[in-house]
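Section 5: illustrative case.
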């Protein structure tokens, strides 16, 4: 595993000042969540490609999302777009339990294997349409979405508990903002935003691709 200097260089020096988030990022072995031929780049300051046109998010983006959710431990969190499982693993270090949804069964299967190797026993991966969330398990104190949508999926907004936070990229391919919202009664209040570029949110029933 790379020395912890990357935590300072990539995260702390760019405004990630939540020590719980920094400790979580330090504990999760990112090399377990990237393709074997890219493990030498596991701690690069960049997103890395996955199969099926997906990506492993840049460490700074994962930290930004986790800081935005303002978790204090013990919460139930929804993670939309499991991908490699890396963001779910970091969230698992910060919350009580994490339910992650992936629409591509092959990615869900490989994420489960990586999460088991990482010892993330409080993370469960579900196959399905992440835009629908998991209403039977909600409401959630935090919802993290790792793919871009043109608007907040109504089901996700409805599954966020009062005082809870939702982090998701909004926009199309040309322009996106990673937005953090906090539920205040019936409204979602914007807390922060950051220009980003994510793959689009894939909706519909779980299905094999390719």
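Designed sequence:
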């Amino acid at each position: 595993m790379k020395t912890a200097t990357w935590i300072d260089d990539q995260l702390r020096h760019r405004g990630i000042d939540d020590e719980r988030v920094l400790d979580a990022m330090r504990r999760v072995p990112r090399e377990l969540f990237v393709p074997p031929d890219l493990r030498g780049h596991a701690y690069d300051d960049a997103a890395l490609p996955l199969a099926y046109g997906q990506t492993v998010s840049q460490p700074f983006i994962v930290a930004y999302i986790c800081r935005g959710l303002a978790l204090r431990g013990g919460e139930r969190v929804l993670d939309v777009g499991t991908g490699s499982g890396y963001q779910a693993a970091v969230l698992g270090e910060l919350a009580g339990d994490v339910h992650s949804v992936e629409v591509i069964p092959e990615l869900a299967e490989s994420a489960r294997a990586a999460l088991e190797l990482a010892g993330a026993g409080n993370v469960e991966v579900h196959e399905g349409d992440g835009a629908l969330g998991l209403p039977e398990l909600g409401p959630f104190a935090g919802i993290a979405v790792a793919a871009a949508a043109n608007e907040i999926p109504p089901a996700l907004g409805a599954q966020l508990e009062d005082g809870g936070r939702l982090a998701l990229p909004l926009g199309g391919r040309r322009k996106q903002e990673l937005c953090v919202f906090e539920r205040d009664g019936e409204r979602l209040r914007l807390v922060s935003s950051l220009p980003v570029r994510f793959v689009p949110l894939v909706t519909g029933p779980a299905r094999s691709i390719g």
